[in-house]
Amino acid sequence: MKYYELLNYGKELLERGGIETGEYDARELLIFASKKPLEELLMIYREDAPEEIASLYKKYLDQRSRRYPLQYIMGYSYFYGYRFLVDEAVLVPRPETEEVVHEALKMTENVESVKALDLCTGSGCMGITFYLERKSAGLKTHLTLADISKDALGIAENNAINLACPDMKDPDKKIEDILIKESDIFSNIDETYDIIISNPPYIKSGDINGLMPEVREYEPRLALDGTPDNSDGLTFYRKIINEAGRFLNENGKICFEIGHDEGEAVRRLLVDNSFTDIKVMKDINGRDRIVTAVFNGE
Length: 298
Ligand code: GLN
What we know:
Number of strands: 9
Bound molecules: glutamine
Distance between the termini: 69 Å
């Protein structure tokens, strides 16, 4: 088959399977299978594709038509312009989460050196992006990436090495200024920080069945609701906010992603635990998504 025929075939197959982004996904998979950038593909569209490329592409289409996420097929996802490795152990980074990181950056923009903790780090996309953006602004960050999942931490570590220390060849060498910690929320944390960033599992357990098949069937349940009895979606905010004071420096900050209907409940938890300057902010779709606050207690 010719390249353009493969593309049309893929688009139709995916659209028939109910995937609205069928055309985009088919094109990405053809780029991925052929290892050719789009500009090159456009020039050879009318040529026959080699059999190896066509069959690899069809294998990927088959996976995608069963609603397997595009990013898991490719093994990476872009976040804030950086390419993060992903697999089934971690959530596919979302554009809304980029906005959360943007707020965390604003909260610390003139601070020369910051100690930051990314709780429930998954792929590490939030913490590592925070680190990289500050680095490019000439600011220093001591970053800890924490998660309960060893598999997720493996991915986060690879991302830290690839993105933050691409020259690092020696596997025993510590990644400069980035610590990876296995921890059930604060269970293994024993330092204090200037900012805690987190996108914890916040889907209500009862809502899991109503999610898109890509999410429901393939993304890690541990990252969605985190515990089968997360009935109101607030379990992790409760745990984090109740204990955060012990892990924050004076005027320590918190920056959370939240579910669109969780703003008021999270605000209340923060008020009850001596946080001030509480802001609930909307994402680009106009839905509550970001909460920031400053610790003002003992
Ligand atoms: N911090 C990661 C992300 O935003 C993982 C979040 C999670 O596992 N709940 O993608």
